[in-house]
TrEMBL record:
Record-given protein name: FAM50A/XAP5 C-terminal domain-containing protein
Basic residues compositional bias, start-end: 83-97
Any Gene Ontology biological process: chromatin organization
Signal sequence bounds: none
Polar residues: compositionally biased ranges: 1-14
Region (Disordered): 1-26, 39-135
GO CC, any one term: nucleus
Domain FAM50A/XAP5 C-terminal: 182-361
Composition-biased stretches (Acidic residues): 104-114
């Protein structure tokens, strides 16, 4: 009888050599040669197992009348049925240690191993000088980039904050109204190529420019400016819309109020403030006595009250702006300006622009020629 080991391996080694010669062409690396040799050996073993299964004799089926010793239950067990699922391995879970699993049923084994590892770590004694517990705590550190959580704002706190804002708003409005109610004195001249003395007008910081022009027109009428020298200088007959206020070389539009220039500290060419008045509320005077009430039964007319109020007003010399140069404030007829705006000094006048930086401005005439002023 021939040796089964020899009959098994002798033709296979030859077959292996032949297959290696067939699949290997030219020079190859040693790692590639070993890989191909292992693949061929695995394929040969698989073919040998298939050939052995095919050559094995099959058992004869039992006769039809042969009784079954296993009973009726064996016949039912011979019929293939649904495979029963292998019961899961029960694991003891520590109370207080809850593990979550997000995998399928096939990962039960991994979950059990993880549970055993977690329980083993939890059962280790905690060392005060260091150990697993301190290492776990060291992993979780506070994030310095996250700001402190805001405190919960209650309804009472919101109402208190709203009341404080309303109080501040009322204080600011009262201060603003106090500043606007402060009177100032503005000396001026009428200008039509020459300076004609006009006088001084009393206005409030909250008044508009057109109010000043209207009062200056009335001052010119009272003083009869121009009635004897030139009929065309009858300023009283000029409407407010036809009058212009020129402050330095800047034409101030009618719709602005003096408070706007005071609070914004607006400057013109050369860095000179257009209206250099204080933006603070005046100090309350304690020397002014209140107006006494008339006796009962005495009728007081509006004219009397107006005269009494004027008597209590401070004198011009006490008002802010009284000592200004009258030539800095010019009241001009717009029609004269339209006819002479190309002639100096009207050619240097420009309308006020709140966005203009007058400090860095280079003044030019209507033809684009730069003005050179002697300092």
């Amino acid at each position: 009888m021939s040796d089964p080991q020899a009959s098994r391996f002798t033709p296979q080694s030859k077959n292996t050599h032949e297959r290696l010669s067939t699949h290997t062409v030219g020079l190859v690396a040693l790692s590639d040669f070993r890989k191909r040799r292992a693949e061929i050996l695995e394929q040969q073993e698989r073919e040998a197992r298939e050939a052995a299964l095919a050559a094995a004799p099959k058992p004869d089926p039992p006769p039809a009348g042969t009784p079954d010793n296993a009973g009726s239950d064996s016949a039912s067990s011979a019929v293939p049925g649904p495979l029963k699922k292998k019961p899961k391995k029960e694991t003891k879970q520590r109370p207080g240690k809850k593990l979550l699993s997000f995998g399928d049923d096939g990962d039960d084994g991994d979950d059990d191993d993880n549970a055993d590892k977690a329980s083993a770590v939890s059962e280790q004694p905690a060392d005060r000088g260091g150990g697993p517990v301190s290492e776990n705590k060291a992993k979780f550190k506070a994030n310095a980039a996250v700001g402190l959580a805001p405190k919960a704002v209650t309804k009472a706190a919101l109402l208190k904050e709203a009341a404080e804002r309303e109080t501040l708003r009322r204080e600011f409005v009262a201060l603003q109204e106090s500043v606007k109610a402060t009177e100032i004195a503005i000396p001026f001249v009428f200008y039509d190529g020459t300076n004609i003395p006009g006088g001084t007008v009393r206005v409030k910081k909250g008044d508009f420019i057109w109010v000043f022009l209207d009062r200056s027109r009335k001052v010119g009428e009272q003083r009869r400016v121009g009635h004897h020298t030139n009929v065309r200088r009858g300023w009283a007959r000029v409407g407010v819309d036809d009058l212009m206020l020129v402050r330095g070389t800047v034409i101030i539009p009618h719709h602005y109020d003096f408070y706007y220039f005071v609070i914004n500290k607006s400057t013109g060419p050369g860095g000179i403030r257009l209206f250099d008045y204080s933006a603070e509320a005046p100090a309350q005077s304690t020397s002014t006595n209140p107006i006494p009430e008339p006796p009962a039964g005495v009728l007081v007319t509006a004219a009397v009250r107006t005269a009494a109020a004027r008597a209590r007003q401070p004198d011009f010399s006490m008002l802010e702006g009284f000592g200004e140069d009258p030539r800095f404030t010019k009241v001009v007829d717009r029609r004269w300006y339209e006819r002479h705006k190309h002639i100096y000094p009207a050619s240097t006048w420009q309308e006020f622009d709140p966005e203009m930086d007058y400090l860095s401005q280079i003044q030019k005439d209507n033809g684009g020629n730069t003005f050179f002023f002697a300092k």
